[in-house]
Amino acid sequence: MRSAFPPFVALVALVAFAADCDRGGGPVAPQGPWPNEPPDFATLSDYGFDDAFAVGTAVPLSDGWFIDNPDSNVTEVDDPDAPLSPPKVGRWRYPIGFTGGHGPAAMYRSLDGPRREMYFGYRWRASLPWQGHPAGVNEISFVLAQDNILVLQMNGPPGGPFHLIVTTEFTTSNGHLANSWGDDPGARQLGGNVNGGNYVVTAGQWYDIEVYFKMSTTSTSRDGVVQWWVNGTQVGYYTNVNFDAANPFTEFQFSPTWGGIGGSKTEEDYFWYDHVRLSMPEPLPR
Ligand SMILES: [Ca+2]
Fold first, then answer.
1. Which of 104, 165, 239, 246 is 20 to 30 A from 53 in CA distance terms?
2. CB of 192 closer than 8 Å to CB of 235
3. What is the Å distance from ligand 1's center to 204 Cα?
4. What is the pLDDT of residues 45-58, one digit of tens each?
């Protein structure tokens, strides 16, 4: 069957080229699953959630991942609508009575060394309905360092609408960033500064989230970069961010924290993740 593939691919490419010409543009490169990944980056992890998520702490998974799943809130389930690597997805469960300030479970991977620059992307969705936290904070993923935490979250009042924003939980001053709010210095919410920012995400729908960041030269040099895209639309393109330059990043984590202090789930809610990609400049340790 393999021999039948190349002509099909060539036909698709020809059709794509013709369609683009109709819009008056030039030929475009084929769009892979991670269209905004820097082409010269090396893949650290490409993981499809094809593991049984056992109950326990620091349980090893495949591809270098681990999970703290003491309450069995994460399970592997089938979702034929998973957008990239169906049917297996990881399901994070928020049972009725779940209180704010923590996540149902934490899945994490070492970055295999200190990282000042990286790309990550994943496919994620929230359940419909989704009961948002009273503080407006529903966190999705983290990249961790001492004094630097880069957070993706769905942000908004408990009933929505929700925006897909980035939080720079750094010790530095970032009050100068456009369409940002929060502490200065300290944790700063970035609503996005291109294409109108403030990208609305709807519970129940899958999203393709991509992020690129590069730390600033010093903690006050205002030359750090934070970019993100949702379903291919660029939302944030900040080039004047202050990171804590003394502390590069060492770990990526899905520990989707609900809130915020206080609050209690009155409905059972879920997050699902289908696939995650982590990459960074060469060389990677072997
Ligand atoms: Ca998958």
1. 165
2. yes
3. 17
4. 999 999 999 999 99
| Domain range annotation of the chain | 1-32, 40-280
User: What is the distance in A from the centroid of ligand 1 to the CA of 277?
Assistant: 12
Q: Which CATH architecture has domain 40-280?
A: Sandwich (2.60)
158 by DSSP, 3-state: which?
A: coil
Are 45 and 276 contacting, i.e. CB atoms less than 8 angstroms apart? yes
Q: What are phi and psi of 14, to 5 degrees?
A: -65, -45
Question: Would you list the DSSP string of 66-111?
Answer: EEEETT--EEEEE-TT-SSS-SEEEEEEE-TTPBTTB-S-EEEEEE
Asked whether 94 and 269 are in contact (CB, 8 A), the reply is yes
Exposure class string for 114-131: b at 16+ Cβ within 10 A, else e: ebbbbbbbbbbbbbeebb
Parallel, antiparallel, or unpaired: how do β-strands 269-280 and 117-126 relate?
antiparallel
CA of 209 to the centre of ligand 1 (A): 15
Instruction: Write out pLDDT tens, residues 154-168.
Output: 999 999 999 999 999
The predicted model scores a pTM of 0.89
Return the DSSP state at 285.
P
With beta carbons less than 8 A apart as the criterion, state whether 172 and 243 touch. Answer: yes
Burial of 150 (0-12, 13-18, 19+ CB in 10 A): buried
Dist. CA 19 → ligand 1 center (Å): 30
